[in-house]
Amino acid sequence: MSDGTTIRAAAIQMEAEVGNVDANLEMAAALVDEAAAAGASWIVLPEFFSTGVANRPELRDAAPLADGAPTALLRERAARHGVHLGGSTLVRDRDGHVRNAFLLAGPDGELRGRHDKDLPTMWENALYVGGGDPGRIEADGLTAGVALCWELMRTQTAARLAGRVDLVVGGSGWWSIPLWPPRGLSGRLERANHRRAVDAPARFAPYVGAPVVHAAHAGALNCPWPLVGAVYHGHYAGGAGIYDTDGRPLALRRRDEGPGVAIADVVPGRREPRPLPEGFWLQPRGAVAAAAWAYQNPWGRSRYWREHRRRLDRAALAGAAS
């Protein structure tokens, strides 16, 4: 439980090159250094900080082990600067499954804990399976809650954190609605989608009763759009920010500002949370997102499990031949 001491928190905004792990880790390290130089003691990298996220199966296939290069970067930079440093990355666990794991390292370079995103979003279902942990990490006198991207949209996320954490950390790789004809309509839908993305951490904070440090991706994004025979051309929503318990922004870096750091002083602590609404969602998703959720979730799961079975079959054949 917090004692009311102010901490300086930093939310990092990246422009990841999808799948270019070396370049993304280099950018992440530089931005962490920048945040530490500005006095931040809690630094948060976005969801998928090592890869970005897109409908690209190679992200799943190349997922490192849980102690791979992305985790090593978190531990090394946390120890170098004496800070708490967290971010999410795809990892392949010993059971062979890929998960979207948020890892928090402490000032000594040791991991304080891990949260696996509970439900993959849309095409993410083709990349990893969900987790079932409560998303609460004990970290040197604070209890940190973790919420990644659309976890900020769901009542069940707020329910597992409400009144139980002193600070919420996490990040997003929220993509835009493509500007397909009719462009007037898709443009209006995307503006609403963008507001939803940027507002999600602010709307989430009062339901939990704790401040939120939310990192984000900005920049362009291109990949196949599932089942429609078209290429998606869009961008990440951005919006790295720090919010007080009432959801008021203390610092915000918008998408058009590019890579960088949002920094603010914040007092961790718990307040009586706002009563949760009825239903699964904390706020409406919008028509396009709801439709994509409905068809891309089962499509993605079938793709993931088909490849997982193939991987197991290949491993079995290799074992039989040895």
Structural commentary:
The protein is an alpha/beta fold. It is 32% helix and 26% strand. The protein is built from six helices and 14 strands. The strands form two sheets. Strands 1, 2, 3, 4, 5, 6, 7, 8, 9, 12, 13 and 14 form a twelve-stranded mixed beta sheet that branches. Strands 10-11 form a two-stranded antiparallel sheet. Strand 7, helix 4 and strand 8 form a beta-alpha-beta unit. It is globular, with a radius of gyration of 19 Å. The model has no long low-confidence stretch (mean pLDDT 96).
Quick structural gist:
This protein is of the alpha/beta class. It has helices at residues 21-37, 57-61, 69-81, 155-161, 183-208, 287-321; strands at residues 7-14, 42-44, 84-92, 98-105, 111-116, 136-139, 142-146, 167-172, 212-217, 220-225, 230-235, 240-243, 249-253, 260-266.
As residue ranges, the low-confidence spans are none
Largest sheet: 12 strands, mixed
Helix and strand run: EHEHHEEEEEHEHEEEEEEH
Distance between the termini: 53 Å
> What is the overall pLDDT average?
96
C-alpha geometry: globular
Number of helical regions: 6
By DSSP, the count of extended strands is 14
The secondary-structure class comes to: alpha/beta
> Helical amount among residues, as a percent range?
25-40%
Q: What portion of the residues fall into strands of 2 or more residues? A: 25-35%
CA radius of gyration: 19 Å
List keywords for this structure.
two-stranded antiparallel sheet; 12-stranded mixed β-sheet; alpha/beta; 322 residues
